[in-house]
Amino acid sequence: MKILCVAEKPSIAKSISEILAGGQRTARRSRAQYIQNYDFSYQLAGPLGRCHADFTMTSVLGHLTSSDFEDRVRKWHSCDPFQLFDARIETYIDDKLKPVAQNLKEEARRADILMIWTDCDREGEHIGQEIVNVCREVNARLRVKRARFSAIIPAQIHRACQNPFELDVRQAEAVDARISLDLRLGAAFTRLQTMTLQQRVPDLDGKVISYGPCQYPTLGFVCDQHFRVQNFVPETFWYISVGLERDDNNVQFKWSRGHLFDFEMAVVLYEICVESPMARVTNVKTKPTQKWKPLPLTTVELQKSGSRLLRLAPKKILDIAEKLYQQGFLSYPRTETDQFDKDFDFMSLIRKQVADPAWGGFAQRLVDGDFARPRNGQKNDKAHPPIHPTAHAGNLQADEKRVYEFVTRRFLACCSTNGEGQSTNVDIEIAGEKFTTSGLVILARNYLEVYPYDKWADSYLPNFQQGEQFMPSYCELKDGQTASPAYLTEADLVGLMDKNGIGTDATIAEHIAKIIEREYVEARQDRGAKYLVPSDLGIGLVVGYNQIGFDRSLTKPHLRRETEHRMQMICDGVATKNEVLQDSIMQYQEVYIKAKREFETVVQSVGRYMQEQPARAIRAGRPAGGGAPRGNRNNNDDNDDDDDDDDFGRDNGQGGGARGRGRGRGRGKAGTTTKARKPAAPRGRGTTTKGKGSTRKDPDDDDDNQGPAPKRPRTSGANTDNTGGTAPDCQCGAPAKQLVVRREGANKGRPFWTCSKGQDEGCGFFEWADGCENVATAPRRTTSAAQNRPAPPLRPPSRPDNEGPQCSCGMPAVQRTVQKAGPNQGKTFHTCSKPQGEQCGFFEWDDPDGQAGDRGRGGRADDGGGQSGDCFKCGQSGHWASACPNEDGGNNRGRSSRGRGAGASRARGGKRSRGR
DNA sequence: GCAAGGTC
């Protein structure tokens, strides 16, 4: 019996034939470059029979066939792009791969059985089908079998060979559908966009404006983050900082409330603390802790951590890994698997690293008994193991050396044990306020010795005893500001794409490179990190499509996810390929028709953002394909006018999303659009955006760079506010939703508009809904750390007079009375009803004329008796109660005045300026 | 001159 085995790539053919042949094989060169044919004999004992069979193992080079449209529509101007949705698609073998197919035919002629050894995933099944089709052309009687394996290790390979399955036709058909849909959608939209925009926007002459179902969601991620950055409004918060100098160490305690956005409440709590500043240690807990070793390395993780740690572009990392793989130094670099097979031979691989001068000693210790099995992740593509070194490489240079070192150290770290340490937490209370600090003693670094990319450092904590009391060295009221989110790094983007199913491990890096190549996005270096900033063209496209508004946005991942879901339906037998194609094509046609009809919106948007010339430079015309009417009847009100130029001019004047900035930056910058406006440089924590007041204060100031947030936005009329106004559209193109500020602070109760899609998916749009400019601080915009925190539940804009307030937990607050001697003694206030330690921090005076309850609105005075800025004890201004000179003995509470001098006085100033 | 997915 003669059996022809075909793998997806030469390396797999080589390693599998090595295993099956047990060293007894002959290699023949094929007519195709890179491909060898391996002959050997193999003893079959399973369902295929019990005999000595003659085996030949060869391979292809990935997909054998290509697809393109029939001749009739292949030329760009040969048809309306709409016809591409039902044009015939031809499948053919590219000239470059003809020798590969020829080799298959020659080998298949003499074979009885064709055994497919492609990777065990959907694409592998499709490649298998391509191989079958070619081989059957010359040998119609060929029996086809499919070897299934999840790792290239002898036991599995022999088992796969003895017990082959059938080829999974459904999976192959699912890929067929994917190929057809991607081609039709990509080509139709690319032609529509390119031909129309080239015609209308002079600066785009000669540029391909491609659309791809992976390219656009990738661009969408970059733009969404840009909008978040642009829309960010910093907000001031306050917190109490407590410290103690002990044993030559400055021990800092963190406030359990974190920080507060309500200045008055922070002051009240701070005053309570400095009134009775003695700290009591309520809990000292020491426990063992671990620093977890990393997971085995997948392609996506290699690109993410490599980009972050080695500062190389994801595509560059993958290219280097590919080269190292071909040189035999690394395992196959395209894998989704983060768990090693249970039979994986770790020890022989670790032994190969013993010779290395840098990590050889560590490898030796693993061999000598320190080895521990790597952790198992959640992913397994059943085709390739995690990326690991397969040989020691001592002579690599530059980036290749760094990538190899990273992979090797990661592998050795996986085979080591977690870092071990002892952590100590100390909780204290000052006047009922809780603070905490912690220390760490590292007992054994373990994997950290070989993996310097992870940081874990001792932090010494002096001895504290439960129940002990001490006077803090300082107790300060400090202020800070929420920080703008940063632009996405390449690592962030790889993570987002992976999470949302955009691209595969092998293609994610290519999609990022593609949107950079198309000039939709610019990779900008800033202090050692590379950030992705959308260009004017990229923003214009995204905003334009979002303004059109589709059920499934072209710039969000949903459409791709749906394609993925439909492919799975084919695989599961729930739908046939033809059903899926029919439904999907019809859906895409609808999207295309809407896009084409309203393409003027995209033209205007791109023109506006790329506005290197006055609006008139946008040539009159119509979308490619010659069908769409001008006038945009289906567009929003601003575009109802029948004159393109007027539309454009008025857009600017009314200050829509892009307008203010567009006009400002356009002046005198003709011919340099993309570079004329640079979005704000990436920011790290601690930097601030332009103040919210300054960006929104003057509606006639068109020169400010206020980002896409509309001052007086166009409205869709879908949502209405409580005064009958209509909802503005956010950058997502959807009507914004109205919420009410719930958090304690000067703006509590104010209605505002925000993106209806929430914090994670939304664009970060924000605008007050009461028509006023900022009274004080806007609702907090998110920082990257804060983004994952759920917003507190919102309550209705106003509450009936007979109802008590609700606290931030959503519970009715309880009324209490100030017991402490001072000007507020006897006053009532509402606070969270939960026991101490579980409280949400809610605080509100009951007296509407009271000090803190007023929240700084409506004629609140800075001066005058009894205001909160005055001493609680004597009523005089200029000092705090805890340093009251009129108090007997002049007790200044030790060194706590440090805080009053620095932090507190700043904080007071902050409050005063808000009141004006 | 279009896409995305394999691989060299």
UniProtKB/TrEMBL annotation:
Alphabetical GO biological process terms: DNA recombination; DNA repair; DNA topological change; mRNA processing
Annotated ranges, domain GRF-type: 730-772, 807-849
Keyword Isomerase belongs to the record: yes
Key words, A-Z: DNA-binding, Isomerase, Metal-binding, mRNA processing, Topoisomerase, Zinc, Zinc-finger
Polar residues biased stretches: 716-725
CC per GO annotation: nucleus; RecQ family helicase-topoisomerase III complex
Renumbered residue ranges of the record's region Disordered: 373-393, 618-733, 779-810, 840-916
Coiled coil: none
Ranges of compositional bias, category Pro residues: 790-799
Bias type Acidic residues, positions: 637-648
One of the Pfam families matching this protein, by short name: Zn_ribbon_GRF
Known EC number: 5.6.2.1
Domain Toprim residues, every copy: 2-150
Record-level Gene Ontology MF annotations: DNA binding; DNA topoisomerase type I (single strand cut, ATP-independent) activity; zinc ion binding
Catalytic activity: ATP-independent breakage of single-stranded DNA, followed by passage and rejoining
CCHC-type domain mapped to chain residues: 871-886
Biased segments, Low complexity type: 681-692
Annotated Basic and acidic residues bias: 373-384, 852-863
InterPro entries, per the entry: Topo_IA (IPR000380), Topo_IA_2 (IPR003601), Topo_IA_AS (IPR023406), Topo_IA_cen (IPR013497), Topo_IA_cen_sub1 (IPR013824), Topo_IA_cen_sub2 (IPR013825), Topo_IA_cen_sub3 (IPR013826), Topo_IA_core_domain (IPR023405)
Domain Topo IA-type catalytic: start-end pairs: 168-592
Biological role: Introduces a single-strand break via transesterification at a target site in duplex DNA. Releases the supercoiling and torsional tension of DNA introduced during the DNA replication and transcription by transiently cleaving and rejoining one strand of the DNA duplex. The scissile phosphodiester is attacked by the catalytic tyrosine of the enzyme, resulting in the formation of a DNA-(5'-phosphotyrosyl)-enzyme intermediate and the expulsion of a 3'-OH DNA strand.
Protein family (similarity comment): Belongs to the type IA topoisomerase family.
Protein name: DNA topoisomerase
